[in-house]
Structure formats: C-alpha cells, structure tokens
Amino acid sequence: MHPGFIPPPECPVFEPSWEEFQDPLGYIAKIRPIAEKSGICKIRPPPDWQPPFSVELENFHFTPRIQRLNELEAETRVKLNYLDRIARFWEIQGSSLKIPHIERRILDLYSLSKIVADEGGFELICKERRWARIAQRLGYPPGKNIGSLLRSHYERIVYPFEMFQSGASLTHCKPKHYDGEDVDKEYKPHSIPLRQSVPPSKMNSYGRRANRCQPDPEPTEEDIEKNPELKKLQIYGAGPKMMGLGLVARDKGFKKKGEFTEVKKEEVKAEYGEDDGSKMTMRLRRNITNPQCVDSFICRMCGRGDDDEKLLQCDSCDENYHTYCLLPPLTDPPKSKWRCPKCVAEECKKPSEAFGFEQATREYTLQSFGEMADSFKADYFNMPVHMVPTELVEREFWRLVSSIEEDVTVEYGADIHSKEFGSGFPMNNGKKELTKEEEEYARSGWNLNVMPVLEQSLLCHINGDISGMKVPWLYVGMVFSTFCWHIEDHWSYSINYLHWGEPKTWYGVPSAAAEQLEDVMKKLTPELFEYQPDLLHQLVTIMNPNILMAHGVPVVRTNQCAGEFVITFPRAYHSGFNQGYNFAEAVNFCTADWLPAGRHCIEHYRRLRRYCVFSHEELTCKMAACPEKLDLNLAAATHREMFIIVQEERKLRKNLMERGITEAEREAFELLPDDERQCDKCKTTCFLSALACSNCPERLVCLYHTQDLCNCPTEKLYLRYRYTLDELLAMLHRLKVRSESFDSWANRVKEALEQEEGHKIEILDLEKLKTEAAEKRFPDNELLRKLNAVFKDIALFLFRLIETFMLFPFSDDRMTLAELKSLVEKMQNLPCVIKHLKEAQVLVNNKDWRKESPPPEQLQSLLEDGGKLPVVVPECNLLQGLKAQGHWLEEVRRTLGTGGGEKHEVTLEVLRNLMEAGCNVAQSVSVETAMAELQELLTIAERWEEKAQICLEQRQKHPLSTLEAIVNEAQLIPVKLPNIEALRGCLTRAQAWVTDLEEIQNGEHYPCLDDLEGLVAIGRDLPVLMEELRQLELQVTSAHSWRDKATKTFLKKSSQHSLLEVLCPCVKRRERCKENGATAQSVCVCAGPPRAPQLRCHLCKDWFHGGCVSFPSLLPPSSPQSNRLCWWDWDTRFLCPQCQRSRRPRLATILALLVALQRLPVRLPEGEALQCLTERAITWQGRAKEALEMPELQRALQELQELAEKEEQKEKDAEENSVIVLSDSEGGEGEDGVIDLTEDSVESLLPLLPLLKGRVVTLSPGAREQLEKLQLEGDLLEVTLDQTYTIHRVLQAASDPPRETLQTLIQVRHRHTAKHSIEI
C-alpha cells in the first residue's frame, strides 16, 4: 500500500426527483452552475429506474487493450524513456545495460542525472565533494559511503551518455536530423523488450517485473571466466570507459597496452575485406603511398593523421578518430564493433516510437473476461473480490503506476462500438421485439442512445453517426484498468452509465483549470510533449492527483457505482480506473451553452494541427438555416455564435480581397469527404470557405493559413465558399427574428392581459397570440400559462351565459342571483370583450323583479275571492304559494328578532327546520335573502358548536383564557348551543376550582392530603389546561411517596393494620377473664383450646400456642457464649401480634421520616400521628434515662457488669477443655459435674435451667414499681429504644429465673428446628 496518497475531495452528487428526471438535459442545465465548478458530477437516478441489460451475451466478443501501469504515469514514463535512451546508447556500442541496486532498491538513473545537473554538473560536484548531498536528495540514509557508490555509477553509466547528450563529443560532427515521421520502427536498442509491443504471456500476463530492475547475486571469479555476459559487466579500474559499465569487449581476453599496435596482415585483410561483424580491431594506416588512403586516415576531431597507433576507424562510416581526441578519451581500445560519436548521435537522435496501447492477442466474451478479471483481483489482493476495500485498491493503483520496478499489466475492453455489438440499453431498432418495460426505457432521455439526439441536443443536427459521440461506446473493465487524463472531442459533454459490476473511480478537473493542468504536466514532463504536443489528446497519460493538487490544480474524485451516471462538462479533464470487473457505456452530447466552448476548441485544434471530428461551422450554419425548428434557448445561442462566425468570416474574406484574390466559386463542402476539405496546414475541416490554387488542385487551406498554400502567383488562387456574405447575413437575421420573437410575443401578451375597460381586445385576437406560441414552439412560461387560464375561464363563462339567457325555458337548473352577480364580476375582469355581458349586467341591476310580495291581508282576500269562483283558477296556486311564503318569512323574522315581536328561543334544530321549510316555499329575492341569512347563522353556530365539542372531548386541553374567549364570543350568536352551555359550565367549575385552590393555599396551615386529592380528581375531569393542577399532582405524588416509605418502615408484611392504626396509641384494654371461666377460655390467634407449649404475652397477658406466633429466640445470634449463664440477658420477653403491631423501627429512622415530612407542603394524618408518636417516645426516653441514672439502679447495673466479667473469666480459665467446671456445691447433671457450653443450639441451655441463680440484684419496691410502669409504657410504644431492653434486663435480674418460661421457649425452638430439618 502507498500511505502517501491522499484522496481528493468528493465531487457533487445529485439525486433528482421523478419530476426532474423526466427532462434529462433540462436537469443537467439546472445543476450546471454547481457541477461545472468541479468538472464532473454524479447523478443517482430514482431507485425505481433500473433499465434492463440488453447486450446479446452470446454474440458479444471483444479484444481488449493491454495496459502496463507504470508506463501510464507521466513522470514514471519519463524515467523509463530515459532508461531506454541510455540503454540504447550503450547497446549501440556493444554493451548491455544492467541497472545497479543500492540499499536494496533500484538506482533511479533519471533522478540521479537531474539532481547532478541541478547541483552544477559532475565536475563541480566532484570538485566540491557533494556526493553525500546527492545521496540525501535521492532519499538514501546518511553514512554507508553511498555518495561514493553514486559517483562510481554515475561516472561509468550516466556521465558518458550526458557528455554525448551535451554535444561535447560531437564538436565537428553534424548528425543527421530526422523528421517526426522518419522513425526507425524496426530498431531495437537493447535487450529490454519494446514497451507496449510485448504480447502478454499465456501463462502469467500480470505482475511482471522489469527484468533489468532485478538485482543479481554477486558473481564469482569462476562465473566471470565461464560467462561472457558476466565478463562483459566486469569493472576494470577507475575512470570513464566509453564501452560503459565495466565495459569489456565481447571478444575473449583484453589486450595489453602495447599489444594493440601489433596487427597481423591477415587481420588487416579481413578488415578491408569481408567483415563478419563479430570482431572489431584497431585499423592502422598502412600503404601511406596510396593516394586514395591518405585522406582517409585523418582524425576527424584534430585533423591530423599522425600517431596512427592511436587511430580508430568507425565500423559504420569508416571515419577515423584518435583515442585521446574522443570525449571522454579512451584509455584502451575497444575489442568489438565501435561507432564514432557522429554515428552514435545519428542512431540516438532517431525519435522513439510514439507511445500508445496495443491490442491483446486473445478475444474474450463477457464471461471469459469476467473470470479472468475476478481471478486476477482475488489473487492479487489474496481475498474475495467483493471484500477488497475501494480505498485499498486506490492506494495500490497509485503506488503501482509510480513504480519503475513493478510492471503490472492489465487489459481493458475500451471503445467497443455499440452498433456492432449492441447497447446495454434497450433500443427500438427493429432487431428485437421489446416488452412494454423495455419500450419505456428505449424511449427514455437517459438512454444513452437517445440523449445525443434529443431535441435540445445539438448533435441531433449532425446527419451521420459519429461513433463515440452520437453512438455510445462500451467499456468492459477489470481492476486497475485505466482511462487517462483527457477531455472529450470538441470539448463536448459526456455521460457515462455503469450498468453493473464493481465501482469505477473518477478524477475530475474543472474547465477553468484545464490550461493549468496542461501547464503542470508540460512543466513536470517536458520530454513527453517534445515529440507529442497533443499528448493529452491521446488518452495514454495519467498523473497522480496529489501532484496536480500540490501545484494548485483543483481535483475532485468519486466512486461511480452500478446504476449511477457520471457527467463531465466541456473541457473538464477527467481520468480514473476500474475497481474490478464491470460494464459501462458512454456517449457525448452538446447543449446550447456548449457552442462557445466548441468554437474555442476548434481554435485550440488549429494550433495543435489536430483533426476535427465534425465541422463546427457546418453544425452552426445547419441550425441557422432552419431557425423555426430550434427552441428559443438554442436559437438565441445559435444567433450569438453565428454572429461571431459571420464577423470573423467577413474579416478573413476582406483580407483576401486586399491581397488581390478576387476569383471565387461556390462549393458544397458538406458533400465532400472530410479528408478532401481539410486545411493542409492546420487540418481543420473547412466549411464556410477555403483557399485553393488552380495549379495545385489537390491542396487547400483555411483562410487563417492563406500564406501556406503554395508559391504560385496570386492570380492562380481562388476562394471556394459555401455561402455569400449576404446569405450569411440573411441567415443571421432569421435567427435574430426567431430568438427575439418570444420577446415580441411576450410584450403583446402582457399588454393584452393588462388592458383596462374600454380598450380590451376581441377574443379572436387573444386566440391569435395563443396560436402563435404553439406554432413557434415557445417554451412553457408563466405568460403562456396565464393565457391558457384566461381561455379556460372564457369557455366556462360563455357556457353559463348561454345556458342562462338562451336555454332558460328548457332548463331546470337556474342560476341564483348571487351566482349571476359573481359571474358578471368575473367576466368584467377578463382581458377581452364578452358577448351577452351587457344583458347580464341589466338583469343584475334591475330592481323591479326584487319587489316585496303583497301584504298577507290582501293575499287572503284574493284567495277567498278565488275560492268563490266556480272554476279552479291557476293563479290561486300562485297566491297560495305567496301566502305560505309570507308566513315563512314572518316566522323567520320572529326567529331572528327582526320583526319587532316576541323573540323565540333559537336552537340549531329550529334553524334547520326553517331551512327545510324555506326550500318548499315559492322562491323570491326575499326568500333567498332570508335563506342566506339563516344558512350563514347556521354555519356560524355549527362551527362554534364544533369548537366547543373539540374542547369538551379533552383530546387536547386548552387554557382557561382560551375557553373564556370561546364562550364570550359564542354569546354574541343568537342561538342556544348545547356544547357552548356545557363548556360554560366547565368554565364555571374550573373557576370555582381555582378559587378553592387559592383559599386552601392561602390558609394558615398546609392543606390536607384528602383536600388536595379531591381537587386533583375534580381538576382532571375538567377539559381545561391548568398549570396549578400539575403542581398539585406533584404535591400529592410526593405525599403518597412519603406515606409509602413510612409504610415500609413500620408495617410488617401482610399486616392487618393500616399505618395510621399502628402510629396511633392502642387504647383498647382487655378485660380479665373470670376465674370460673378460665378453662373454657379460647386462646391464641387461632381461637383454639389451650395446649402445650404455650406462652403468655408480656403486655396483654393472653396465651398463645408455640406454633401459631413467633416466640423470642432466647439467645440472639450476636450474643457471646460467655454470657449464657447470665440468664437475665436472655431474651424471654414475648409480645403478641396484637401488642407489637409494627416493625418498631429505631428512633433515628423515625426522625429521618419527620425531616422528609417537613419538606412536604401537605398535611397527612399519618404524619401528625408520627409526630405524636415521636413526641411520646422522646418523652418516655427522657423519663427512662432519668430513672436509670438513679444510684440504686446504677449499682444494680454495675453488679450485673461485674457478674458478666466474672463469667467471662471462668470461660478463659476453662479454655483448654472448652468446658466450664462448676463447683462441687453447685453439682451438675453432666458426667463428673462437667457441662459443655460450646454448642450453639438453644437445646444446650436446657441442662443450665436447674443451675440458674435467682435475684442477682436487689431493687427497692419503689424502684421496681417505677421500672415496671416504664416498661409497660415502653412496650406500648411502636418504637425500638435501648432503654426498653435495659429496664427489662434489670427487672429480670431482680426476679427469680423464669424456668417454666425458659423451658417453654427451648421446647418451641427445638420443635421448630426439628421441623425445619425434616423439610430440608
């Protein structure tokens, strides 16, 4: 991998909508201002646009091109070309080139030569001893004497070549000059195969390293003697040797210095006779008297013929040179063929063959090429092809192209003609019947067969099919296959679509930086452009984007994936490579904005003498000849382009007139083949005019190169033209009319649409404007849309008028007055004169037909008179209708309160009934007006009812102010609305709720939790958004959280008591049972008969079974063994579940709950009860402390402490036997009076019961009474206090040991333990 490569920034990526995608060239024109700044862009079609792949796989076969990667990169190719030239130089003189290696890498001879020249030359560097600096600039590490190695290699290999290149060895030699076309294509300068002409190996075509770059093992002396090639590479002594590289002759042996003058006559004869070409010896001057030989044996450098022992004769031209006259001089004569500096110069000056790609020898199908490509990529990266990251391929590609050591070869199926093998897109060419889906894609503008010939594309005006421009080319790629830096022919647009396969990596440079890119490449690699000035047009050269970016050239990149388009803009340089096996298709297209770029391109081609693909002038004139077929944008662009062309043509023809060339003849250039109308000088395809000579009929030139045609007299020259200047001006005028026709039409449409009353035009005149837009194919625009809308309104209005005035007797659908009035107003706003408009205006403004109906009394009288007639009069029905109409109107007036009478209660049902009745009475203006008022009132009332309903549904609660505004505004409606009334009630309750909340919060004490919960419940039911409710909910939640915490602190699991019951004092006192009813008394929580073992509650004195309640553990786990004989410390106090109702937390835990309670702004009954409990506990604790501090009790506690210490000392004395030995007077039940107290179980206490001493301490009756009273009060408290245990301990020590109670507890514990063991 090459870590130095930094990917350029990404190019713009566009994703058109389906609507934008329908107009391809329109969308490209839309994105052009953004995309053109990058040179290239990527377009992702909508996801559903997936054209089927239509190539006929069985007939598709192609021969790819061969690409050797390191010969594509410009700087690398310069280095390789340099190696070719220096190898050629040495091989001409009989020596082959083997490039040395230093520090395990090949010596870059080209960079060495350039750096030495940059540092002042070989002599200066040697003089100043700066070879270490040369090594540093070449990137070698300091030390190791690398500078000396570089000097040695330079002196032996490069210095003779540089001397020759500088011309120092050709002081009197004038080598033959070769023109660019005189190239010795058969010449092979050295053993290195000609690059780009080597067919790939059938076994392994890729990964071939250049043979000359491989380091060889050091040869032994025996190898040198046996191998003439190694002998040839030996180095003998220091100093330059013209043969190069140690440079020994091809003959065996090397003659001593004095031996080369002793030449046998046979040798001389052989030299002047037949030469087998295998030997070269010193030619001496013999037979001086022969006049033909005297001039031949003269040194061409010094002009003297003396010292003939040192005279050498060239094996090619027979010229003679002294060995010491050569530069550099030869110390020893060559032993093989030798050529003089002039012949070497002539041979080396022959230009090398122009670089290009060759075709492979194998023909592929898509399947065989894909198998080869995938196999190569998988083998190269040693992983499956789909797992190779694109970044890795990109870095490896740029590493390979810059390496002169690694010669990786790939193949690229490029520029495959789609006409011959079929396009990847469906085509309507009659060769294949298409499905409906394929027909849609075949007509799509994004089909690359369709895009170049779209109406907006200029290429549709070119008759012939231009392969690659109008007809797509196909590209089948493999990994590393490359398309080099180039711009499209005629600087046109290009579009590339990747049908399938792995991505294609692109690099692009915008057109504004095109010349900058060319300058950078010419500056960095001038040698390549010396023989190929149009090198960048040959698509054979790339350069690392990082190098271009370092020189200020803006470069972008992108990865084109399958199904994506890449667009390149005019004169945007682009290049790239393929990430793997893929199939792409590309074509060119030109839009109106391309015309100036196309003209500049022709000027550029003219300077480079490059052939054109088509004539730009011919294309422009062909469009100008039929301006009516062009859309407006294209016509305007063509007019601007044609104006410049005509002005230039007029100037050029004027120059001919000034030279005296007056003869002219018309020529239909478009009928001539391109090669018969190309300028002989610049190769431009002529169309408008050309200069020809009657004496030289086979030649012609464009008017820019009239001096380069021939040397014939002026009268022999004549102008061949396509159009006269008058014809060109006429074409220009028609273009102008076409391009400006839209402006004229637009002004007339604006004027017509803005006419005021009295100046309006007829409908026929508007119709003419619409027809003109259609005939001249004006683009869709706002004015045209307005005009079409006007015609749509005219058609509708005319139909309604005709229906009203002409078809009235035959139509049941009559227009209302409001509708007629609205229609008249709209017709008055139309920009043209409308028939029947005046009749409609008279009808609207007539007041007679809107008179009020007769009074009811008159109608009743007429009806009575009509009823007396003996016949049915038709008018009676009309009068009856008028009567019903009057009654209905009166009811409406009473309902709406406009009649002055008693106003009825108006509901929605009343309004709907009136509306329904109004539809059945005779219609009149009054009825229509009343109906309109009723409908308006009903609509408003229903709207407010709907608003209220929304507020009541509580989907989204509204603030109080909003509801007040709704209710207040609804009061203005004279209709009773149920939802509004309900909303008013909710509003009243909400206001009362707020008032109650304020009263509670403004009170002297915190509100009770029950009150707040009630307010929260009421507030949640109201459809009103109240901020106070949220605060109340938080307070209630906090109170419940505190209550839950207190419950967990006090209540046992599955407790039957509430927290409040536990916290409040227990005032219930059980009555003592009478002695005569004791036997029948029920005991325990189970209400069963008495049975052993049972225990009595210390507080309530009730009896309980041992298996029904939890008894004391007697010996707590934390109690030490030394205190087991201290029976007063045993836990014998039993409280039943009714007396010990809670967990009895410690006082510190309760105080923490009180602190949390103080933070709540809510009063809880449990909180108050807890405060009372805490106060009682603290009071009792104070009294208990005071009592325990009395001297009598202090002495008792001290005695207990001393007894405990004494027992502890006894344990220490008996520590060895782990037993306690009682005194003889105490006796014992164990063997030898020994009792084992080491067991942990409660059963171990059973033998101690007879030994327990009674009344350890003595209390006065007063002290005992006080402690018993305190103990009773303490047991009633649901709090754990240390003083309770202390009092119980003192009272127990002052009493006899409760042996029965202890025995009962031990039995209960034993049963519990045994039962537990059985369960396990």
Question: What do these coordinates show?
Answer:
This protein has 1320 residues and is an alpha+beta fold. Helix content is 43%, strand content 9%. The strands form ten sheets. It has a nine-stranded mixed sheet. Strands 15-20-17-18 form a four-stranded antiparallel sheet, covered by helices on one side. β23 (689-693) and β24 (700-701) form a beta hairpin. α35 (1027-1050) runs antiparallel to α37 (1147-1158). The longest helix has 29 residues, at 725-753. The protein is flat.
Question: How would you summarize this macromolecular structure in one to three sentences?
Answer:
Its cofactor is Fe(2+). The protein has 1320 residues and is an alpha+beta fold. It has 42 helices and 31 strands.
Q: Total number of β-strand segments? A: 31
Strand order of the largest sheet: 1-2-19-16-21-14-13-4-10
Mean pLDDT, nearest integer?
75
Radius of gyration: 59 Å
Helix percentage range: 40-55%
Largest β-sheet summary: 9 strands, mixed
What is the beta-strand fraction?
A: 5-15%
Distance between the termini: 71 Å
Number of contiguous helices: 42
- Unreliable spans: 171-294, 846-852, 1069-1082, 1117-1122, 1218-1240
Shape: flat
Q: Report the structural category.
A: alpha+beta
Can you tag this structure with a few keywords?
alpha+beta, 4-stranded antiparallel sheet, 9-stranded mixed sheet, 1320 residues, 42 helices
Draw up the topology in text.
Layout: E1 13-14, H1 18-21, H2 24-35, E2 40-43, E3 61-62, E4 65-68, H3 74-92, E5 101-102, E6 105-106, H4 109-118, H5 122-128, H6 131-137, H7 146-166, E7 208-209, H8 221-226, H9 228-232, H10 265-272, H11 291-294, E8 311-313, E9 320-322, H12 341-348, E10 358-359, E11 364-365, H13 366-381, H14 390-401, E12 406-407, E13 409-417, H15 418-421, H16 436-443, E14 473-477, E15 482-486, E16 493-501, E17 504-509, H17 514-524, H18 526-531, H19 545-550, E18 556-560, E19 565-568, E20 573-578, E21 582-589, H20 595-608, H21 616-625, H22 632-659, E22 664-666, E23 689-693, E24 700-701, E25 717-721, H23 725-753, H24 763-775, H25 782-805, H26 817-828, H27 837-845, H28 856-868, H29 874-896, H30 908-918, H31 925-952, E26 958-959, H32 960-970, H33 978-1001, H34 1009-1021, E27 1024-1025, H35 1027-1050, H36 1059-1063, E28 1094-1096, E29 1103-1105, H37 1147-1158, H38 1165-1188, H39 1191-1213, E30 1220-1221, E31 1234-1235, H40 1261-1276, H41 1282-1293, H42 1299-1319
Helix pairs in contact: 6-7, 21-22, 22-23, 23-24, 24-25, 26-27, 28-29, 30-31, 31-33, 32-33, 33-34, 34-35, 35-37, 37-38, 38-40, 40-41
